[in-house]
Design brief:
- With 379 residues, the protein is of the alpha/beta class.
- 39% of the residues lie in helices and 17% in strands.
């Protein structure tokens, strides 16, 4: 029996657990965990962290909460991981949040922007990663009102907590202009298509479309809009702005003009051609992920999340207790990371455990996301 907050990690290894959808309707997100595994492999080749190697155990949950529970229990109770790191998805992580907190297992840098990851009072062992969906939704609404004050707006979102967070923030951002939302619809992750919802939104007369969808459905939305001749301004959430997972399947020509919020450097953007951080990232990709797409922002996200986790572990020194993992993960004050956009920093404290709280708007020009405007959000 371990003492509360303790761990049984061997002196020579640090065992981290992870679940990700390597299969199923959200399999595009599996890229994030593959990138994290590759980054930890690089660290291990360099001697690890404070003399310890990272043992990164990542299991497929197919984006199914029931499978997430099964795989997480295996990682905790059989593999005895020190912490769960960057598990993917809102519904999957919700399914294990109470379990992990009850067992005092760190659930750190959750790969999702659900608002509930920032609730240290009720879930002190959970730390988020992405900007909260509520914040992001609010910023998109404010962007619309500033640039298209008379817009008629349509929104689609998954019928789950993530979608509800985005829509709540989006409506809060619209404020007294919420009546400009002329069509609001949802989908289920298990649905084959969103064709009928797309027809409904087109018929609403909307000229701005917030496609708050996971990659498969975001790609469908862009493609269907083009095939129907519907040409609204399309806004994609940060969780679905991957070049290779969304824009290419949608048809590059169909995606021109789409906007999104970024917090990571887009490897396709020529502005970073001479950037030392991008050159380092590309060299890492060539060596550790030679068959992965350099156009996929999820590879940048996995790389960055793993770097932040490595910093937390480094800051733990020789005290690799679970208590200290949480202490260090919630004490990041203005940390910069090479592939974060300039001006965007990592902040956490015991009362606000959302590390990334800023985005910058970008427009797809057929080749890359082109940044415009100022960094938006809060510190």
């Amino acid at each position: 029996m371990l003492p509360a907050g303790g761990c049984s990690a061997a002196e020579t290894t640090i065992k981290l657990g992870n679940t990700a959808p390597y299969s199923g309707p959200a399999s595009a997100y599996g890229t994030i965990a593959r990138a994290e595994a590759a980054y930890f492999q690089m660290l291990n080749d360099q001697g690890g962290i404070n003399g310890r190697k990272i043992d990164f155990l990542t299991l497929d949950d197919a984006y199914s909460p029931a499978k997430t529970v099964e795989q997480t229990r295996k990682l905790v109770e059989q593999d005895d991981v020190l912490a769960m790191f960057s598990s993917v998805g809102t519904a999957p992580n919700i399914s294990v949040q109470k379990y992990l907190n009850a067992r005092r297992i760190p659930q750190v840098f959750v790969s999702s922007g659900a608002t509930r990851w920032n609730d240290p009072e009720h879930f002190p062992w959970t730390v988020g990663f992405n900007p909260t969906y509520e914040l992001e939704g609010r910023l998109y609404a404010q962007f619309i009102l500033q640039t298209r004050p008379n817009a008629k707006i349509a929104v689609i979102a998954p019928n789950e907590d993530a979608g509800k967070d985005y829509v709540r923030g989006f409506k809060a951002g619209l404020g007294e202009h919420v009546d400009q939302l002329v069509s609001e619809t949802t989908y289920l992750t298990a649905d084959p298509t969103i064709d009928s919802q797309m027809v409904t939104m087109r018929e609403s007369g909307a000229d701005v479309f917030f496609a708050e969808a996971t990659p498969k459905f975001a790609a469908q939305a862009i493609k269907k809009a083009a095939s129907m001749g519907w040409k609204p301004l399309i806004i994609l959430p940060s969780v679905s702005n991957s070049f290779s997972a969304v824009l290419e399947p949608a048809g590059i020509e169909n995606a021109i003009g789409v906007v999104t919020g970024l917090y990571l450097k887009d490897p396709n953007d020529v502005r970073w051609a001479d950037d030392a951080a991008l050159k380092d990232w590309l060299a890492w990709m060539r060596k550790y992920q030679p068959n992965a797409s350099t156009g996929d922002l999820y590879n940048v996200q996995g790389y960055t999340a793993a770097q932040i986790m490595a910093l937390v572990l480094q800051n733990c020194g020789d005290d690799l207790s679970r208590d200290n993992i949480i202490k260090q993960a919630t004490a990041l004050n203005g940390v910069t990371m090479p592939m974060l956009l300039p001006g965007i920093r990592i902040y956490t404290d015991p009362h606000n455990v959302t590390p990334i709280r800023q985005i910058q708007m970008a427009r797809f020009d057929g080749k890359s996301w082109v940044l415009f405007g100022d960094v938006l959000g809060e510190k």
